[in-house]
Design goal:
- The protein is of the alpha/beta class and about 375 residues long.
- The protein has 15 helices and eleven strands.
- The protein has two domains: about 130 residues, Helicase, Ruva Protein, domain 3 (Orthogonal Bundle), CATH 1.10.8.10; about 180 residues, 3-Layer(aba) Sandwich (Rossmann fold).
- Strand 10 and strand 11 form a beta hairpin.
- It is elongated and about 65 Å long.
- The N terminus is likely disordered.
């Protein structure tokens, strides 16, 4: 095919965006999406290799949508063994788009969404603050609620920097750690936005999650500013310290698994039903089953890992240091009790998220 023929073929590969979005929104509503229009836009934007904002502008103006030869979707082959239905949906969508059938491509993705698959697994992307992060089934989707940790961490860093300057001292790099980094969203956002030097270490027990986090750090340009370490909770940080070494962290952040086991089990049970067999189905609950259990399941009361980490804080936080810990609904009183158990010199404040729900514990060590 010469250049002229290729250009003619490209012009012929167009779709009616408004019609596609109406059809997809209706189908996503039927399978239980609580945000069907947004889901439809995200899926179609990924298929068209464009941004949602660009898609919305084109649809509002009535412009036809040009179909690329290749969609910006995850590669199916690496997912085939562990996630066969996801891999098959992606394969079908890619083939349909190559054939110029955007409707069939959307249908394949919507069918997988109806099985409880998060949108991010279908697009391979998830936004968090100013970042666009790679996401796979090996990591938890970054949630807007976790922005509270970033806002609180930035405020802490700003206060420490201002205090140093008030004493006539140049700001020294702060020692910061994230426990359970997952996709790397929190560590990367903090390094990207902080206006002070940081020495940041991020840990995770999952090697697959660390691979995603490293990839995200590299693609956002902060790969050289974060040290990623494999290990269980704070063990990589404590294990490298000599006996008798004083605590060394100024700031610790963590969004550890805090969903009770029974809730995770219920999500898996709900996901085992076909959409057509249920009158009402909320994919925001069912989708939990498609995310890595290790990143969600916090034990019988949801606090198993948080309890372990709080017990290690005296070995981690130096005087004047802080730990910012995200937790779930109804867990604030238990968190306060855990910190109280550390004894004198420790205090905790509970912070609400943007929805007004208690979401984060700010633990401080006197000094």
């Amino acid at each position: 095919m010469n250049e002229h023929e290729a250009n003619r073929a490209a012009v012929a590969r167009e779709a009616d965006g408004a019609t596609l979005l109406r059809s997809a929104t209706r189908a996503l509503t039927e399978v239980g999406s609580t945000t069907p229009r947004l889901d439809a836009e995200l899926l179609l934007a990924a298929l068209l290799a464009t941004r949602v904002s660009t898609l919305r502008t084109a649809v509002a103006a009535g412009f036809p949508l040009s179909l690329p030869l290749n969609a910006e979707l995850p590669e199916p082959t690496p997912l085939a063994d562990a996630h066969p239905s996801l891999a098959e949906a992606l394969r079908i969508a890619r083939a349909a788009l190559s054939a110029g059938d955007a409707g069939a491509a959307l249908d394949a993705l919507i069918a997988e969404r109806g099985r409880g698959r998060p949108i991010s697994h279908l697009t391979g992307r998830r936004g968090f603050r100013a970042l666009e992060l790679l996401v796979t089934p090996d990591v938890l989707d970054p949630r807007p609620e976790s922005e509270l940790i970033i806002e609180s961490a930035l405020a802490f860093i700003t206060d420490r920097t201002a205090a140093a300057r008030a004493l006539g001292r140049p700001p020294q790099p702060l020692n910061v750690a994230e426990i359970g980094t997952g996709s790397g969203a929190l560590a990367i956002a903090l390094v990207d936005e902080a206006r002070a030097p940081l020495r940041l270490t991020a840990t995770d027990i999952s090697g697959e999650a660390l691979a995603v986090a490293r990839a995200n750090a590299l693609r956002t340009g902060v790969g050289s500013r974060i040290t990623f370490v494999h290990g269980d909770l704070a063990e990589p940080l404590i294990g490298t310290r000599a006996p008798g070494d004083p605590p060394h962290l100024d700031l610790l952040i963590a969004n550890l698994p805090y969903v009770p086991t029974a809730v995770v089990d219920a999500a898996h049970a709900a996901a085992s039903f076909h959409p057509e067999s249920e009158t009402h189905r909320d994919l925001s609950h069912v989708s939990i089953a498609a995310e890595p259990r290790r990143a969600l399941d916090g034990g019988s009361d949801g606090l198993e890992l948080i309890r372990r980490l709080v017990a290690e804080l005296p070995r981690l936080l130096r005087p004047g240091g802080a730990a910012l810990l995200e937790f779930g609904d109804g867990q604030s009183a238990a968190i306060v009790q855990l910190v109280d158990g550390l004894g004198l010199g420790w205090r905790v404040a509970i912070r609400d998220d943007l929805a007004g729900h208690p979401r984060m514990a700010e633990v401080r060590r006197s000094g």
